[in-house]
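Backbone-to-sequence.
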């Protein structure tokens, strides 16, 4: 994305009130964009100048349609569709998950198609997930090792299925939208997606995910609380830090289209077992109390997710390279930042 202040494109961010949204919006402003920050909840503090807040539900087609006019007739240049119901929350209410994750995505794609320009289709960036993968059993998971984007796309969660559906809808809007029109299909959006692993943030503890045992373990130890981990110690899936996740979004969003060989990319960083996360937590917070009480259904979901991902395409096409491995994640980012916050709070 060019950083000229003269550029005045309108960018829609859904789920803007979350941590990813709070990191992306300032970057978009620095790039000279005008931002519509949409979220289900009212903003907890005012957004800076250049941002218009919109409170509403992505399931509501009228609300999504209204986002297009918040800056008058200006066309939409990009949509960052971050709003989602995560995997464990989705299993508790599959219909809601489908409406938010699939119908919500469809509403945003339709908005981008209607409010973009034909000459320069809007960028549509969808964070997807390793939840799209569904490996049959532990032996198959061990044999599969790191998975490629086109393998094992047989999710057992409504969240993973919804992300797969949204990826496919993106591909449709990018290549075949209105294909029966006399002038042929419209390339209505420039659709790009990243399949994220579990994310570790120093600032927030996620809720509703199934990779949440990683961040929960860390934040419980930092608060001096005992933690009962809901998966076995040998459970292994990929993780990355929040700053790396933001870097991935910025990297794919700004990549030249000619360099992209696919629409959907894996991104990897490190792939620890729950016991390996616990060991690093213990090193930084000696005496952390971590016990294991696997929850059978959540364990089965984690067992169906791959041990790691192959991210060669992201590295080759748009230079993906994470800054944090497991040790650096803790020593350079998570622990210093958590301790700084703790010190500020007790001052
Ligand atoms: C979840 O656990 O649902 C998410 C994800 C892996 O996409 N964190």
């Amino acid at each position: 994305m060019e950083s000229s202040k003269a550029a005045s494109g309108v960018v829609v961010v859904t789920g803007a009130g979350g941590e990813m949204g709070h990191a992306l919006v300032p970057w978009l402003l620095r790039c000279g964009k005008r931002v519509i920050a949409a979220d289900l909840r009212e903003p907890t503090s005012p957004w800076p100048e250049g941002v218009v807040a919109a409170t509403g539900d992505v399931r509501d087609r009228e609300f999504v349609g209204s986002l297009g006019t918040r800056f008058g007739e200006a066309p939409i240049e990009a949509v960052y569709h971050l709003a989602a119901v995560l995997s464990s929350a989705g299993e508790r209410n599959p219909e809601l998950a489908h409406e938010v994750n699939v119908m919500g995505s469809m509403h945003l794609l339709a908005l981008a198609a209607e409010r973009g320009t034909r000459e320069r289709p809007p960028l549509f960036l969808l964070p997807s997930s390793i939840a799209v993968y569904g490996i049959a059993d532990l032996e198959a998971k061990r044999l599969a090792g790191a998975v490629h984007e086109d393998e094992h796309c047989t999710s057992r969660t409504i969240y993973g299925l919804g992300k797969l559906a949204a990826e496919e809808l993106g591909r449709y809007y990018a290549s075949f939208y209105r294909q029966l029109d006399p002038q042929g299909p419209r390339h209505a959006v420039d659709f790009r997606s990243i399949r994220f692993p579990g994310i570790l943030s120093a600032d927030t503890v996620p809720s509703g995910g199934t990779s949440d045992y990683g961040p929960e373990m860390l934040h419980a130890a930092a608060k001096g609380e005992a933690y009962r981990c809901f998966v076995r110690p040998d459970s292994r899936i990929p993780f990355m830090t929040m700053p790396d996740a933001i870097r991935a979004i910025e990297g794919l969003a700004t990549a030249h289209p000619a360099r992209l060989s696919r629409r959907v990319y894996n991104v990897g960083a490190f792939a620890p077992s729950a016991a390996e996360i616990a060991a690093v937590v213990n090193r930084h917070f000696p005496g952390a109390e971590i016990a294991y009480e696997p929850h059978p259904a959540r364990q089965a979901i984690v067992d169906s997710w791959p041990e790691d991902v192959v991210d060669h395409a992201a590295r080759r096409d748009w230079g993906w390279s994470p800054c944090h491995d497991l040790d650096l994640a803790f020593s350079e980012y998570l622990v210093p930042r958590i301790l700084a916050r703790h010190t500020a709070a007790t001052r």
